[in-house]
Amino acid sequence: MNTARVDKVYMELVRKFPLVPLRDKAEFQEAVKVMKRLAYRRGTLTSGEADYLAVLGDLISQYERRLPRLAKKMTPQEALAYLMEISGLAQTDLVDCVGHKSNLSAFLSGQRGLSKRAACRLANYFKVSPALFLENE
Fold first, then answer.
1. pLDDT digits (tens, 9 = 90+) for 80-92
2. In angstroms, rounded to a whole number, what is the distance separating the alpha carbons of residues 30 and 32?
3. Domain map (residue ranges) of the chain
4. End-to-end CA distance of the chain
5. Distance CA 115, CA 123 (A)
6. Tens digit of pLDDT for each residue in 20-38?
7. CATH number for region 76-133
8. CB 34 within 8 Å of CB 17
9. pLDDT category, 47, cuts 50, 70, 90?
10. Distance from C-alpha of 132 to C-alpha of 122, rounded to nearest angstrom
């Protein structure tokens, strides 16, 4: 371990939320909260905070990969609703991904599909495949 790179802010983050594999939904949800707090400050993070955020993001991804593979059983709307729920997100949090809140509302209610562009943006946001949000053709 390169101790020269480990700063006090990094160690304080580790004390508050240790960088260990996430074992349950509660740990996952807390990790997402910590990640969001840091991500909102992305341009002003110290190098230690940025390193912590990168590792925390990897731990969150590892946890999500262990979740049951329900994608084939879910509709695109159910998949997005599920991802929003486990991430603690509201529709307004995803407006930038889909363009307008009304588009997202119509999609979630099954009244319309998503554009490929919106599906790609959501996929990038959640780190999943865009196919998850597109109807099988």
1. 998 888 888 888 8
2. 5
3. 8-66, 76-133
4. 50
5. 12
6. 998 888 898 899 899 988 8
7. 1.10.260.40
8. yes
9. confident
10. 10
